[in-house]
């Protein structure tokens, strides 16, 4: 009996050391899962030669952005804004040439876990920059024949790129017009017909960062807002020996004149549509070629750089209204010259007909000498 009890006791002890078939096997600890959200940036970290007009964009997938900071080399943050859903952010100002920028972004994923991104990039360093100016300037009031001129201090190799950056807005009505490259360093915009009186004009030349080719970039944006004045047009039919002034198509003044000599085409007042370029209370008409020295005339209105003016010439009073004896200018009596001078605006058209000669395209302003179809073809975008 004692052996049986001992045997049973041993079996019981052996059973107590065996694994319970109903208990699970132990497992290793599970690490935290990676965040589901991911932040990306354009330009990417370490990008080089980034265009200064490129908007820097930060995006998050499967989450929302909490903070984004883009910092320039001076430690100032670049202006930017979030999208309404905070899934993206972009800059709202241009970058600087040849600079290094740092960005840092933080966000929260849809799983509640934080994510972040940091990086740097550098912008393009131009071989050179080209400066531009716009005329008319801000707040000017000009005549209905005034063109818009954008002038560059060096010729841009890529004219199309430059022209694409230019815009003209008019109110209260839209005015049809076109850009034309009249020089390698100058592109003008003029309407198909004279401007409507009292038009408001805004010119935007968004040229900063524009690639002109040959390593050159636009130096700065330039703008101008100006107004068109009343409609006044001067008409001179040279054989008639008179100068007529029209407002809104109605004749408002007629002045006897002596124009360029009829017999000599070199001394004609040449045919063509010009504009008032300057108004000078006293003009200097000295010209050694013709023996003129210290010749001053009052109420001088320049209409070309070819040498033509409208001005008083009391010394030629005997021929005013009777014969054409000038060397190309429109001579008026002093009182008439003063009356016209006081009425003139820069940009007023002056239409000349009846001469033997045509006005050459050598003046600073010859826009209206070019037919409309030819003018349109002078655009770099045609």
Automatic annotation (TrEMBL):
PROSITE patterns given in the database record: LD_TPASE, PROKAR_LIPOPROTEIN
Keyword Acyltransferase: yes
GO biological process: cell wall organization; peptidoglycan-protein cross-linking; regulation of cell shape
Alphabetic keyword roster: Acyltransferase, Cell shape, Cell wall biogenesis/degradation, Lipoprotein, Peptidoglycan synthesis, Signal, Transferase
GO molecular function: acyltransferase activity; peptidoglycan L,D-transpeptidase activity
Residues at the catalytic site: 311, 329
Cited Pfam families: Big_10, YkuD
The UniProt record lists the keyword Lipoprotein: yes
Domain of life from the UniProt record: Bacteria
Domain L,D-TPase catalytic: 232-353
Position of the signal peptide: 1-21
GO CC annotation, single: extracellular region
UniProt pathway annotation: Cell wall biogenesis; peptidoglycan biosynthesis
Official protein name in the record: Lipoprotein-anchoring transpeptidase ErfK/SrfK
